[in-house]
UniProtKB/TrEMBL annotation, chain A:
Keywords: ATP-binding, Cytochrome c-type biogenesis, Membrane, Nucleotide-binding, Translocase, Transport. Gene3D superfamilies: P-loop containing nucleotide triphosphate hydrolases. The keyword Cell membrane does not apply. One of its GO terms (molecular function) is ATP binding. It comes from the Bacteria. This is Heme ABC exporter ATP-binding protein CcmA. PROSITE patterns: ABC_TRANSPORTER_2 (PS50893). Pfam families: ABC_tran (PF00005). InterPro entries: AAA+_ATPase, ABC_transporter-like_ATP-bd, ABC_transptr_haem_export_CcmA, P-loop_NTPase. Transmembrane segments: none annotated. It comes from Magnetospirillum sulfuroxidans. The keyword Nucleotide-binding applies. SUPFAM superfamilies: P-loop containing nucleoside triphosphate hydrolases.
From TrEMBL, chain B:
The lineage of its organism: Bacteria, Pseudomonadati, Pseudomonadota, Alphaproteobacteria, Rhodospirillales. It holds the Pfam family CcmB. This is Heme exporter protein B. The chain crosses the membrane at residues 21-40, 46-67, 102-120, 127-153, 159-181, 193-211. It comes from the Bacteria. It is a multi-pass membrane protein. It comes from Magnetospirillum sulfuroxidans. The keyword Cell inner membrane applies. Belongs to the CcmB/CycW/HelB family. InterPro entries: Cyt_c_biogenesis_CcmB, Cyt_c_CcmB_bac. Keywords: Cell inner membrane, Cell membrane, Cytochrome c-type biogenesis, Membrane, Transmembrane, Transmembrane helix, Transport. Required for the export of heme to the periplasm for the biogenesis of c-type cytochromes. It is found in: Cell inner membrane.
């Protein structure tokens, strides 16, 4: 990747997570540099979602540190939130707001400039093939359309770090291709992608982290 | 500031599109107050004596009715996670949501109160003070209520639990709200009561969003 590497790497050291009295993972290290992608693999309940929530700052790690370069993310949660897009299991679509209204609200929270935000919303809608649905209320959307509306947030306001929890759920093959294209563009412009998945998502040169019950190993994917 | 206004606008838009919420609160308020003349008889003297208390107790219950809407739907559809991850202090988001909640529930109560006061034969000397206590008191109700609404997120039967948590905290507002109106009706100065109500509002404005933010983060862990 010949990306403009002005961003410091996003790293975690010795991360541990305890849920309901059980150690989900411990001693986990990872690092994502500008233009890189990280794929979290592991069986159900191995802590992929928990790790993504820890990375987003929704969950406090029981042990370890998260940092951008040398600065801890917990020291500046608002700056971390501005750099991050988190896509979880829920689509956060309001049934009574239209697709464009839903998207514009989230875009405006990240992008204070109204004109730029609404430009980005339009571009994002057409990129995800939602332009013809822009005035449809959220309650009329199918599961896949809701998911795409949620994913459209990624482009509606620029943020370097994308944290995605099984983003391909409910997407058809064509839209997975679209998403892969969006990832490639994001990485080419120096963005970072971290995602968990059970399906094959084409991310050239992505690193993988296997989350097993306790032991964690990191390896380079030779793709 | 832009984010604050965006959240207020979104919540107002949601409340208007769904419509039923603020209407339900006002209807509950009106119906319950109307029950009192039937229950304790239409004698003007008795009604006049209890008018301030009835109006305030009913307003407390009515404003509590809509509290579960404050965070519950956002919690269920995942919006709350994203709101917590907004690149601004969570207190700003909470304050915006509370303001929207007050505009859709507290404000309609404020408008309905003097009409119901006429129904209860309240002495007209008390009307201005009634409006003032409502104006200062109902935002306090929304602010304290937000703490309860955030604490019960994810609990079953949250609606009942929130009333057990919140009603005791509403008592000071009730005491000084009714005290101010009674003082005005008896020709005394309502100012001390109003000042204490205003002090409650001043204390709740920073403290309640702070406590609510902590409770919301806890709910999402």
């Amino acid at each position: 990747m010949n990306a403009p590497n002005d961003l410091p790497p996003f790293t975690g050291h010795g991360l541990g997570c305890i849920r309901g009295g059980r150690v989900v993972f411990a001693g986990l290290d990872f690092s994502v540099a500008a233009g890189e992608a990280l794929v979290l693999l592991g069986p159900n309940g191995s802590g992929k979602s928990s790790l993504l929530r820890v990375m987003a700052g929704l969950l406090k790690p029981a042990a370890g540190k998260l940092a951008w370069g040398a600065v801890s993310t917990q020291a500046e949660p608002e700056i971390h939130a501005a750099r991050t897009h988190y896509v979880g299991h829920h689509d956060a679509i309001k049934p009574v707001l239209s697709v464009a209204e839903n998207l514009r609200f989230w875009a405006r929270l990240h992008e204070p400039d109204a004109a730029r935000a609404s430009d980005a919303v339009d571009r994002s809608l057409s990129r995800f093939g939602l332009a013809h649905l822009r005035d449809i209320p959220g309650k009329m959307l199918s599961a896949g359309q809701k998911r795409r509306t949620n994913l459209a947030r990624l482009l509606a306001a620029p943020s370097p770090l994308w944290l995605l929890d099984e983003p391909t759920t409910a997407l058809d093959r064509h839209n997975i291709k679209v998403l892969e294209g969006v990832f490639a563009d994001h990485r080419a412009s120096g963005g970072m992608v971290v995602l968990s998945t059970h399906q094959d998502v084409d991310l050239p040169g992505a690193r993988t982290v296997h989350l097993d019950d306790f032991g964690i190993e990191t390896e380079e994917d030779p793709a | 500031m832009i984010r604050f206004l965006e959240v207020v606008r979104r919540d107002l838009r949601l409340a208007l599109r769904q419509g039923s919420d603020s209407l339900m609160v006002v209807t509950f308020f009106v119906l319950t107050v109307v029950l009192f003349p039937f229950g304790i008889g239409p004698e003007a003297g008795i009604l006049e004596r209890v008018a301030a208390g009835v109006l305030w107790v009913t307003a407390l219950l009515a404003s509590m009715l809509s509290l579960d809407r404050l965070f519950q739907t956002d919690y269920e559809d995942g919006s709350l996670e994203l709101l917590v991850l907004t690149p601004t202090s969570l207190m700003v988001v909470v304050l915006a949501k509370v303001l929207a909640h007050w505009l859709t529930t507290g404000l309609p109560l404020l408008v309905a109160a003097p009409i119901l006061a006429v129904l209860l034969h309240m002495n007209s000397d008390g009307f201005a003070v009634l409006m003032l206590t409502m104006l200062i008191g109902t935002p306090v109700l929304s602010l304290i209520g937000a703490i309860g609404a955030a604490l019960v997120l994810g609990a079953r039967r949250g609606g009942v639990l929130v009333s057990l948590l919140i009603l005791p905290l509403y008592v000071p507002v009730l005491i000084f709200g009714v005290g101010a109106i009674d003082a005005a009706v008896q020709g005394l100065s309502a100012e001390p009561h109003l000042l204490i109500l205003a002090a409650m509002l001043a204390a709740c404005l920073p403290l309640a969003p702070w406590a609510t933010s902590a409770a919301l983060r806890q709910a999402l862990e």
